Amino acid sequence: MLRVYNTLSGSKDLFEPMVPGKVRMYVCGVTVYDYCHIGHARSALVFDVLRRYLEYSGFAVEFAKNFTDVDDKIIKRANEQGVSCERVTTTYIQAYYEDMEKLGVRRATLEPRATEHIADIVALVDTLLGKGMAYRVEGDVYFQVDRYPVYGRLSKRKMDDLQAGARVDVDERKRHPMDFALWKGSKPGEPSWDSPWGPGRPGWHIECSAMAMRHLGETFDIHGGGMDLIFPHHENEIAQSCGATGKEFARYWVHNGFVQINQEKMSKSLGNFFTIREIFDKSEWPETVTGEMLRYFLLSTHYRSPLDFSDQSVAEAKNALNGFYDLFERLKESAPAQGAVDQQMREANTRARQAFIAAMDDDLNTPNAVAALQKLRGEANKALDAGLSAEMRHVVREEFRSLGAVLGLLQPDRWQFKSQGSQESHGASGAPAKRLSDEEIAGKIAARLVAKQSRNYKLADQLRAELSSHGIIIEDRPDGTSRWKR
């Protein structure tokens, strides 16, 4: 049974949803003022895989992931570009969808936007004011943290320590340095909405509470996001939500770790800050990075551990995937079969499935899940050498397809996801594939074989290069024949 590390309890907890067979999950999405970076990609993949595994385990998942489409950064970007905030958010929401499609990330069941929930936000702020947990300062409304006695329980921070560490330039209008804005009074040139306290816009934290409760209820199963959101964002969500309802907000809090670049913290000032599309399009990489390669790499480290992105890691991901797709090509071939080998392979499939599930049940241990698939790959190759029936070859392919789908990987009928700047699929070499038909490929390989037999090696090399330009890799075999793959 699935156990997840719950930041709230500080331990791996047995996952038990509120409603048997149904999971309600909310994940903090992106603030849409710029292109997504590799850190966003990791968070998106972690919760995409959590959702996939819950569904694989038989749960019906209602998954909400929001867009923050009103924020100081959005307003600043709009002013810099001389366009409306709506123009900025529309542009980057579309870019987000494009990036996620390349990574194979499925869209959430619900994708609420803050600007579509102003009425819910105003009602929630009004409730907090009515309960004496918030106060007005001119056109602003603040949450009063000392009215929530267990403030800091998610981040394990004490109120005294928080106050001592508060910045000197804190707003003197606030009653406590850690009080945070629920509603911000309007300023010239900023978007605003009407409220009982005058025109203004919501604070960041209240948006997520209002959207989550509107779609998933006052208490739901899982709340997720990056570790950078634990404090103050998720801490503040808990305080205002529990303060308003008197109920627990989310039962399990799941957070993914950070991404480093060549063992250094990712930072624009260090020049190692990459958006997802820059990674796909970066000509300096020794490997052309594609969606499945990036996805495999991101899942090869446990989601709570720091992850180091480097040239070597990209190459390792490509090589590992090549090994799987080489196997899938072998499984298409026909050869004499031996019954004993089939039984051994059937048992290997069962062991791999059990090991995969045990790994995923252990707080989504995707590295161990991948290792189970790699072990199965090795056993399948040995079975093919010994003689595996056509029926069992199909069974093995379907086992990889089924388990791989949980990770969003290893779908034998398509090598990998699109890379940036192309609407065509890409071959294992990363080169754009013009999709020669199997018959055309076979014809060129046959012509190359004839050229080699005639010692016309120049023509043979030209035919290999031509196939390579179409994303076709040829492997010459000891018996004189050739095997190919896209």
Q: Top keywords for this entry?
A:
alpha/beta, Isoleucyl-tRNA Synthetase, Domain 1, four-stranded parallel β-sheet, four-stranded antiparallel β-sheet, 15 strands, 14% strand, elongated
Give structural notes.
There is one protein chain. This protein is an alpha/beta fold and 486 residues long. It folds into three domains: 3-257, Rossmann fold (3-Layer(aba) Sandwich), CATH 3.40.50.620; 261-407, Isoleucyl-tRNA Synthetase, Domain 1, CATH 1.10.730.10; 438-485, no CATH class. The protein is 46% helix and 14% strand. It contains 15 helices and 15 strands. It has a four-stranded parallel beta sheet with strand order 4-3-9-10, sandwiched between helices. The chain has a four-stranded antiparallel beta sheet with strand order 5-6-7-8. A three-stranded mixed beta sheet has the order 12-11-13. Strand 5 (134-137) and strand 6 (140-143) form a beta hairpin. Helix 9 (291-299) crosses helix 10 (311-332). It is elongated and about 90 Å long. The protein starts with a strand and ends with a strand. The model is unreliable at 415-433 (pLDDT under 50).
Concise structural overview:
The chain is an alpha/beta fold and 486 residues long.
Count of the separate structural domains? 3
Helix content: 40-55%
Largest sheet descriptor: 4 strands, parallel
Which CATH class of the largest domain is shown?
Answer: Alpha Beta
Q: What is the averaged pLDDT score? A: 89
Q: Which class of secondary structure composition applies to the elements? A: alpha/beta
What would the CATH topology of the largest domain be?
Answer: Rossmann fold
Low-confidence stretches: 415-433
CATH architecture of the largest domain: 3-Layer(aba) Sandwich
- The fraction of residues in strands falls at 5-15%
**Rg (C-alpha, Å):** 27 Å
Indicate the overall shape. elongated
Query: Could you give the distance between the termini?
Result: 39 Å
Number of strands: 15
What name goes with the CATH superfamily of the largest domain?
HUPs
Order of strands across the main sheet: 4-3-9-10
Order of secondary-structure elements = EEEHEHHHEEHEEHEHEEEHHEHHHHHHEE
Number of helices: 15
